[in-house]
Each structure stands twice: as structure tokens, then as C-alpha cells.
Amino acid sequence: MEDNERIFPDDKLVSMFRNGDSHAFEILLSRYDECIMRAIRKSTINNNDSVEDLYQEIVTHLYEKLKCVYKANGHFGAWLNCVVGNFYVVCIVRNIRIAFH
Fold first, then answer.
1. Rounded distance, CA 65 to CA 67, Å?
2. Do 14 and 74 form a contact (C-beta atoms < 8 A)?
3. Cα 2 from chain centroid?
4. Cβ contacts of residue 43 below 8 Å, gap of 6+?
5. In whole angstroms, what is the distance from residue 57 CA to residue 50 CA?
6. What is the 3-state secondary structure (H, E, C) of 38-87?
7. 10 neighbors 31 (Cβ within 8 angstroms)
């Protein structure tokens, strides 16, 4: 991450993203990438394909949710953790339903 990218708080980057700056999303993602990956690895069997697939699904989900759901209140990291956790639970439920049909 470049030094000039560090100066923007998360909520400012969210605002920039909502105004069409896709690079702002990339900066946010780079800030929280390890957090997301750690949550996935902690919650899944160590299957690298599953981890990468789930990561891509979560990033797409975050991209969509960030457009309209997040309320800029200075708690982006906590919001992101909730979204990642909830997405993972939905995936588990979906997989259980598929397994029993």
C-alpha cells in the first residue's frame, strides 16, 4: 500500500467507492485482506481451492453490500467482520440443504 493511500480513513474510502472510485475498494480490500483470509481459514477445512473460492465469493458479496448497506459510522472493520461471518453461515446452511436434497 502506498503512503498516500494510508491517509484516507475507511469511511472516506467507502464514500469514494460509492462515488465511482473502484480503486478505493481495492485499498479497503488490501487493508482487510488478511483479516478476511484468516476468518475463512479458521472456518474451513484447509482446502486451498475452497479458501480461494470462498474468498472470491466474499469479495463479490462485500462489493455489492458496500454500495448500499454500510452506514459510514467509523466501524468499517466490525461491519466487515459481521458481513464475512454472516456470509459464511449462509454458505454452510446452503451446503447442508444441498447435502440433504
1. 5
2. no
3. 21
4. 88
5. 10
6. HHHHHHCCCCHHHHHHHHHHHHHHHHHHHHHCCCCCCCHHHHHHHHHHHH
7. yes
Give 64-79 pLDDT, tens digit per residue: 999 888 888 888 999 9
Given a cut of 70, the residues of the chain with pLDDT beneath it are: 1-5, 44-49, 101
C-alpha cell at 95: 451446503
Query: Which residues, other chains included, contact 54 with Cβ-Cβ below 8 Å and sequence gap of 6+?
Result: 40, 44, 88, 91
SS3 content of the chain, % helix, strand, coil (to 5): 80, 0, 20
The values of phi and psi at residue 6, to 5°, are: -75, -20
> Residue 39 has which C-alpha cell?
476468518
Three cell numbers written together for 90: 449462509
